[in-house]
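Narrative of accomplishments. A recurring question from our advisory board has been how the design workflow behaves on a single, concrete structure rather than in aggregate. To address it, we present the structure tokens for one chain from the evaluation set, followed by the sequence designed for it. No filtering or post-editing was applied between the two.
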């Protein structure tokens, strides 16, 4: 009888522990606007898998790619209220709330993806993350990169004047809006998933994008001129709701920050390896790729710089750091 009682007590204790562990488990919902095949989505998935393993199942990251949770503006609102736990989003949306982040999109701030990764891990960019809790209600966990920005156009672009008056799909935030306004283009915001059809029906004449989006969304089927300007980097930022963050133990915060930064950092090497192959595939599909440098844009770049030195004081410090980056 005593043995039976002891066995029942042991079973009850084990069951209580299991129930307790289950009660502690938390699903962290993470949103993105890019497709599930995109490198950012894959980094989010890998981060979630490692977090689940490291936390012993305490945290399970559920990834929602392709804008399933709405636009980035909508997701940022959800982060602020705590309705969404995490997001990997373009730093562009953050720049809409905190102007200093617009400095990261300065034309020709860096030459390539490798330099972008170095600068984003530098003192100025990392220090900018400290502004986010007070100004945007979110915690910045780290940065990653996409491919360098270029243009895919459905019209010949042998001269910068050809861009004047054209409808170019952009991510709608001030640094890029100013860049295309100075070029005389009509900036046309729309979800990235709508661009394929928009190029086909003439709703837009071109798109500000990178090689990965051009290839994975098959945009090259609708426009045959790639202006390989590499005119801006386009960072992704890992964010967590400030409300959710405040409820986490310190050791869990450290683990989530560490793993988010780790997997966002892997994007630099991934893009370095993939860009050449992606470009080759696009060219094999019959698309003309025309490399151009800063001189192509004339005095537009200086005009942009004068505007943004006033809007984003961090730009001056970023320029100084960028000058010392390894080639």
């Amino acid at each position: 009888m005593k043995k039976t009682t002891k066995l029942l007590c042991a079973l009850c204790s084990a069951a209580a522990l299991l129930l307790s562990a289950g009660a502690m488990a938390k699903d962290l919902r993470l949103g993105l606007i890019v497709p599930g095949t995109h490198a950012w989505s894959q980094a989010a998935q890998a981060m979630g898998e490692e977090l689940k393993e490291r936390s012993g199942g305490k945290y399970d990251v559920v990834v929602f790619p392709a804008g399933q949770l709405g636009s980035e503006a909508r997701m940022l609102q959800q982060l602020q209220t705590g309705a969404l736990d995490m997001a990997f989003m373009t730093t562009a949306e953050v720049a809409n709330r905190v102007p200093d982040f617009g400095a990261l999109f300065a034309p020709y701030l860096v030459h390539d993806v490798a330099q972008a990764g170095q600068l984003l891990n530098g003192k100025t960019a990392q220090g900018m993350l400290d502004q986010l809790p007070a100004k945007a209600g979110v915690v910045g966990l780290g940065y990653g990169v996409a491919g360098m920005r270029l243009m895919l156009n459905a019209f010949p672009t042998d001269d910068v004047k050809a861009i004047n008056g054209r409808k170019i799909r952009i991510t709608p935030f001030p640094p890029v809006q100013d860049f295309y306004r100075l070029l005389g283009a009509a900036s046309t915001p729309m979800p990235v998933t709508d661009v394929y059809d928009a190029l086909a029906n003439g709703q837009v004449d071109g798109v500000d994008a990178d090689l990965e989006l051009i290839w994975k969304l098959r945009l090259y089927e609708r426009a045959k001129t790639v202006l390989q300007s590499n005119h801006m980097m386009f960072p992704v930022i890992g964010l967590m709701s400030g409300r959710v963050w405040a409820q986490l133990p310190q050791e869990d915060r450290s683990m989530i920050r560490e793993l988010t930064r780790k997997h966002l950092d892997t994007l630099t090497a991934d893009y370095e390896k993939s860009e050449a192959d992606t470009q080759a595939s696009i060219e094999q599909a019959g698309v003309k790729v025309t490399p151009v440098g800063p001189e192509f844009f004339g005095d537009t770049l200086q005009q942009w710089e004068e505007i943004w030195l006033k809007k984003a004081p961090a730009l001056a410090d970023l320029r100084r750091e960028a000058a010392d980056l390894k080639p």
